[in-house]
Amino acid sequence: MKVVVAGGVLSLGLLLFMVYLAARQELAIRSYVTRIQRAKQQEQTKESQIVEIKVKLQGVENELNTLRQSEVNLNKQMLEAKKTTEDSGKAIQTCKAEKEDKERKKTELSDTLAKLKEAQEAEKNKAQEEVQKLKQQLLDRDKAICAFVDTAKEEGKKLCGL
After folding, report:
1. CB atoms < 10 A from the CB of 64, how many?
2. In the predicted model, what is the mean pLDDT of residues 27-38?
3. pLDDT value, residue 140
4. Rounded to whole angstroms, how far apart are CA atoms 136 and 139?
5. I want to staple 157 with a disulfide (CB 3.0 to 4.6 A). Which of 14, 42, 109, 162 is the partner?
6. Measured on CA atoms in the order 26, 30, 33, 39, is the torsion positive or negative?
7. SS (H, E, C) 20-49
């Protein structure tokens, strides 16, 4: 009977040892399950953060593309403005050259006009002198004719103004 008691105690000890191992293993499994669940939650959180970052990154890329397009447009506008400025500068230089040419021609025409006025005045004075000479010659001729005309007759009086 000792053997049976010893076998029973040994069996009971073995059973308790197995229960201890089973309980320990159960606790370890629960601990692992809890860790796995926490890891899954962390993974989901990180995945959602990654998705948010990807969305933000996509938004930033879209904004960057918009800014690049704006930069291209601004560069085109800047080149057009430079070209317009250069064209305007050339047009201004052309206008200045034309203005100087017109002013030079105006000065030349003014000088020529002044010379022509002087010449015309001289011609006018000369013509007036000639007219005066011719009038004087006519008066002298009339006086000479009146000296020979018979003032007794009506025609003679008329001609000499008597």
Report:
1. 10
2. 96
3. 83
4. 5
5. 162
6. negative
7. HHHHHHHHHHHHHHHHHHHHHHHHHHHHHH
Q: What is the pTM of this model?
A: 0.44
Closest Cα to residue 145, out of 155, 133, 132, 160? Answer: 160
Q: Which two tokens stand for residue 31?
A: 């601990």
Burial 131-152 (b: 16+ CB within 10 A, else e): eeeeeeeeeeeeeeeeeebeee
Give the list of residues 6+ apart from residue 151 with CB closer than 8 angstroms, or none: 157, 160, 162
If you average pLDDT over residues 104-111, what whole number do you get? 94
Q: How confident is the model at residue 150 (pLDDT cuts 50, 70, 90)?
A: low
Angstrom distances, CA of residue 104 to CA of 28, 93, 94 = 109, 16, 15
Q: In sequence order, what DSSP letters do the residues of 111-137 get, joined into one string?
A: HHHHHHHHHHHHHHHHHHHHHHHHHHH
Return all residues near 160 (Cβ < 8 A) that are at least 6 apart: 142, 145, 146, 149, 151
